[in-house]
UniProtKB/TrEMBL annotation:
Its main location: cytoplasm. Residues 2-260 form the Tr-type G domain. The keyword Disulfide bond does not apply. This is Peptide chain release factor 3. One of its GO terms (molecular function) is GTPase activity. It comes from the Bacteria. Coiled coil: none annotated. Increases the formation of ribosomal termination complexes and stimulates activities of RF-1 and RF-2. It binds guanine nucleotides and has strong preference for UGA stop codons. It may interact directly with the ribosome. The stimulation of RF-1 and RF-2 is significantly reduced by GTP and GDP, but not by GMP. GO terms for cellular component: cytosol. Belongs to the TRAFAC class translation factor GTPase superfamily. Classic translation factor GTPase family. PrfC subfamily. GO terms for biological process: regulation of translational termination. GTP binds at residues 11-18, 79-83, 133-136.
């Protein structure tokens, strides 16, 4: 178990996350051919991007799981969407990892998306390694980037490497630990394995001075502070040109924590516990359009899972036999005979398993901490063919289960409302309704601006419902939701109903 490293890569769009993912897989021997990853046809897409809309746009829309091995370590890499409008799927993926790599563009620094994802990591004290990408292009000064990470994210920073020049004067990357320089070679100015020891005159005086200042001016690396989420080691490189990729794999292997204990209603569950426990953090329908399949992604928290084992889902109460557990390499899959704490396995099922479900041998534990977030955009769904109401309901339930959307069924009126945390998810919704469910639908403006879950005693909720039925809906779990016309509306109702909590999150 201690040889498992389960981590995610988080970044702003275009920071180079997909290229880095591909190069990590290449280094780990999981793929044998790297292609530039831009939106220019199927041959040049990363292996983790499989959905039709992703193929058209060249971006990662869903989170994928990839497993590879190197030097006796099993790496479980969870790829999170890098586009501007990310979804609940992204938040939930970060509940299933033990550490993260944050990718920053050397020219742009920290962007809003990165900050948002970082906050989710912060909520769970997920340790972060920072990778400053694209140093082979013109970028900001190293000190400016380091100080921005320290200030914006309130973390101690420790440079582990240093670019020897940037852009047109880029001469390689210096490694503080080994005192060596990785040099560019050939017409492409890539890293092909040439490493030199640092000798006098090997790098320009001004950069040598900068490096000395950098080494002296920042704290030394502290493993405990990093694992507590208080410090981030910073690596500089270029994923496209192979600089810094090997150092990152090495850092994840050496520094990133093995499987961490997980919170549950029964207290903290330790990975050393002997019986099998785990939780479903993602459900993906139709990964294989030929078979209309439905895969639940389970993070194993404790025990050794064996194929054919019977596990009890908390939402069901009766055991299910897991005959065909899947280990993923994006679209490629293989049957997993065994899995350890920290591993992610896919369980094929027909709607029995839901996001937030705990699976265990004894049914005596329930994991917590998988959040739903209040949607930022609400839209009404209008069918072009009214006879397809049943198919639409099935599709909306499936897609809300995946975290693509949330769906609300108003107490009054027949038009269902979908909520998303980003605009792109609406495009994904319409595209997938048509491609996977053969349902054509339009989205109209909704009279509501946001949604809040109602929490309080049954009497308080019933009293509120009696007077506000036109503003009430149920989510797909049947829980009451207040549909608000504005933020002011939420504040006003909160004042009038002090016994109720109008919550922007719902934990599953």
């Amino acid at each position: 178990m201690s040889n498992r490293r389960t981590f995610a890569i988080i970044s702003h769009p275009d920071a180079g996350k997909t290229t880095l993912t591909e190069k990590l897989l290449l280094q780990g021997g999981a793929i044998h051919l790297a292609g530039e990853v831009k939106a220019r046809g199927a041959a040049r897409r990363a292996r983790s991007d499989w959905m039709k809309i992703e193929q058209q746009r060249g971006i990662s829309v869903t989170s994928s799981v990839m497993t590879f091995q190197k030097d006796g370590i099993v790496f479980n890499l969870l790829d999170t969407p890098g586009h501007e409008d990310f979804s609940e799927d992204t938040y939930r993926t970060l509940t299933a990892v033990d550490s993260a790599i944050m990718v920053i563009d050397a020219a742009k620094g920290i962007e809003p998306q990165t900050r948002k994802l970082f906050e989710v990591c912060r909520m769970r004290s997920v340790p972060i390694i920072t990778f400053v990408n694209k140093v082979d292009r013109e970028g900001r000064s190293v000190f400016e980037t380091l100080d921005e990470v320290a200030d914006a994210l309130a973390l101690d920073v420790v440079p582990m490497s240093w670019p020897v020049g940037m852009g047109g004067v880029f001469q390689g990357v210096y490694d503080f630990a080994t005192r060596t320089i990785s040099r560019p070679e050939g017409d492409g100015r890539e890293f092909l394995g040439k490493v030199e020891p640092l000798t006098e005159g090997a790098i320009p005086d001004d950069i040598a001075e900068e490096m000395e200042l950098g080494e002296a001016g920042y704290p030394a690396f502290d493993l405990e502070a990093y694992r507590n989420g208080d410090l981030t080691p910073v690596y500089f490189g270029s994923a496209l040109k192979n600089f810094g990729v090997e150092a990152l794999i090495d850092a994840i292997a050496r520094f990133a924590p093995p499987p961490r204990p997980q919170p549950s209603e029964q207290g903290i569950i330790d990975p050393e516990r002997s019986d099998v426990t785990g939780f479903v953090f993602k459900v993906q329908a139709n990964m294989d359009p030929q078979h209309r399949d439905r895969i639940a992604f389970m993070r194993l928290v404790s025990g050794t899972f064996r194929r054919g084992m019977k596990l009890i889902p908390s939402g069901l109460g009766k055991p299910i036999a897991v005959h065909s557990p899947i280990l993923f390499f994006a679209q490629d899959r293989e049957i997993a005979d065994t899995a350890e704490a920290g591993d992610i396995i896919g369980i094929p099922n027909h709607g029995t398993l839901r996001v937030g479900d705990t699976l265990s041998e004894r049914n005596d534990v329930r994991f917590t901490g998988l959040p739903n977030f209040a949607p930022e955009i609400l839209r009404r769904v209008v069918l072009k063919d009214p006879t397809k109401t049943k198919q639409l309901r099935k599709a909306l339930d499936d897609l809300s289960e995946e975290g693509v959307i949330q769906v609300f069924y108003p107490e009054i009126g027949s038009q269902w409302i979908v909520g998303v945390v980003g605009q792109l998810q609406l495009d994904v919704l319409v595209s997938r309704l048509e491609a996977e469910y053969k349902v054509e639908a339009m989205l109209e403006a909704s009279p509501f601006d946001t949604a809040r879950w109602l929490k309080g005693s049954d009497a308080a909720i019933k009293g509120f419902e009696d007077f506000n039925r036109s503003n009430l809906a149920r989510d797909r779990d049947g829980d009451p939701v207040f549909m608000a016309r504005s933020a002011w509306d939420v504040g006003y109702q909160q004042e009038r109903n002090p016994d109720l909590v109008f919550s922007a999150t719902k934990e599953r």
